[in-house]
Every structure is written in C-alpha cells, then in structure tokens.
Amino acid sequence: MPHEFYEHMFRVPLPILEKLLRPAIVYLCLVILLRVFGKRELAQLNPFDLVVLLCLSNTVQNAMIGDDNSISGGLLGAFGLLAINWVVVHTIHRSARLTRLVEGRSTILIRDGKIDPKALEHESLSHEELTEVIHRNGFETFHQIRRCELEPNGTFYIEAMDPSPVEHHLSEIMAKLELVNREVVALRARGDAG
User: Fold this and answer.
1) pLDDT, tens digit, for every residue of 100-156?
2) Domain containing 129 — which CATH number?
3) Within a 10 A sphere around the Cβ of 109, how many other Cβ atoms?
4) Are residues 76 and 131 in the same domain?
C-alpha cells in the first residue's frame, strides 16, 4: 500500500524533458497571443476578460502537464514555467529592440483634449471605458487632458492640460507655508535684534 501511494503521488509518468518543455511552449505561445490581441487584455479586466483568462488557464492546463497529476510532475511544470519566465524577462530587458518587439509601444488615446477614435478602436476600448479611466484619475472631461497613453504593460499614463485640482491646491498650500516661513524668520530676526 505505501509503495502504491508513493507511486501515485510522486512518480512522473512523462519524461522530465517533456515536463519542462510543455510549460515553456505554452508560455511562449500565450505571450505571443496576448501581444497579438493587444494591451487592452492587460489594461483592465471587465467580466468578459476575466472569464476568458479563467478559461484560458484551464484550457492550457493539460497542455502544460499532460496526463500527470503527481506532485513531482506539478513541481517540475511549475519550475519549467518559472524558468522560462526568468529567461524571457532577463533576455528582453537586455535589449531595447527586443523589448519593443515583445511588449509593443504605447498608444496615444487622447492628445490635447481630443480622443483618437482609431487608437481606441485599435485597442478595443470603448468611449465609456476611457471615460471611466479618466474619472478614476481625477479628471472630469477629456478637455482637461493633454495626453493619455495606454502603455505596453496595460497601465494608463495621463498628463493634465493644466495643473490638476489637487496639484493646484498643493501649490496654494506650499505658497502659504512659504509665507508663514518668511514671517517666522522675520520674527526671529526681530527677537534676536531686541
């Protein structure tokens, strides 16, 4: 009985090289597919995107592990996946050209308060989704934005046309603090003189 238990738990029915190659191949294919389907998949997960990602992980599971439910096989598959990720990340960051090829370039969605409809369509973003993004970043209208870019990693870079209300309020506070500081220095000077 203990021998059968051990065999079922830890024996890897597939060759070790295959266990290491399967996750590497699936990983590279997924990187390419996510690159082809765009940055939107990384930008924000709506319910449909979440369902796709959950199904995607389940779909590729058997391709990565084969007919192996052993702990050893799972650990070998995890090692293979982490190893290929480490190699890809370190290789990409050594070459700016390769980084651009794999990650892509940022897409300008808003320039000087005007939306680029072709860029929105290219990134499969709706007007409502872009409105939600600018609201989350403290802007009320597109006219307040000098530049909005969707970065290759799926984040949004937003540059205000004018200082944002928070920046404006902060500069007012800093000006008042500077005035108070000057008055304190002047009072100290009078106190030292007297």
Assistant:
1) 777 778 889 999 999 999 998 888 888 998 999 899 888 888 989 999 998 877 789
2) 3.30.240.20
3) 25
4) no
